Task: structure prediction
Amino acid sequence: MPITEIANAPVVEVAPYATAEDAVRLMAHHHVGALVVTRENELVGMVTDRDITTAVVAEGRSLATTAVAEIMSPEPAFVRDHSGIMEVIQAMRRSKARRLPVVDEHLHPIAIVAADDLLLYLAKEIAYLGRAFSRGWEVERATKDAPG
Result:
């Protein structure tokens, strides 16, 4: 299954010259904790709510004058839109990132996948598998215990 089936789309983008205040407003408006930083539709970085908290607020810097480019993670790891879940998990482990941009064949960002998205998907799949096994065991027990 391609990761685009569980990733969050559309991606919310911010320009590198935007301010941290602009980024906070975008995050609040879209209810997200990370933005993809793009220049001319090209992925150049990621900025998270944690980046803003630690690099701006905790340092006493101004949200209104600090540029996203100053606090973003440049050249972030990313996954392709056709990547499978295991590829995404491996990319997250390698990059030590909880969120990764998902890019199309032209390397344009189209979504973000978070570790939480993967955990939720895998938990549901395990629950479905458990119910299937449970039904199989019930049928087996019923057949075994039936007179005959």
Summary: The mean pLDDT is 91. Helices lie at 20-30, 49-57, 68-71, 85-95, 115-145. The chain has one domain: 3-114. The beta strands are 13-14, 34-39, 42-48, 73-74, 79-80, 99-103, 109-114.
